[in-house]
Amino acid sequence: MYEAPKIRDAAPNEGPALEALQRRSSDVWEEYREQLAAHPEVIELPQAFIDKGWVRVAVDASNTPIGFSVVIPSDGPAHELDGLFVEPALMRRGVGRALVEDATERALSEGAVVMDVTAGPAQQFYECVGFAVTGPARTQFGTAVRMRRDLRR
Q1: Using CB atoms within 10 A as the burial measure, which of 11, 58, 74, 85 is most buried?
Q2: pTM
Q3: CA 28: distance to chain centroid?
């Protein structure tokens, strides 16, 4: 039986470990490997995001990070899912879904009614967890899509 991972706020000193997890997670997308290798600076988790409580971490039974999400609040009704990364060996096992549901609950509690994300190759995942395409987006590495999830459902 599947047990959802425990999700907690990121610890103040976890930034480097989470950036390493982000690198491993991002490297599963072959189309981005070369670009990420040429621009390692894009794998950055600002300490301010951790300090503000915007980073949530999924952990295994030994409290080891197995995934994390970054949600940036706004003054309006939309929060931004700025990042979601899962250990490659644990992808397709519910960790990402659990992080999206955690982000949804937190965003709702902060007054958001929608959550936006810029999705590249993970578009199918986001569709599976309730996001819908709203239009194109330009990123440093090319074209992506903007997606939105209505949190009131």
Answers
A1: 85
A2: 0.91
A3: 15
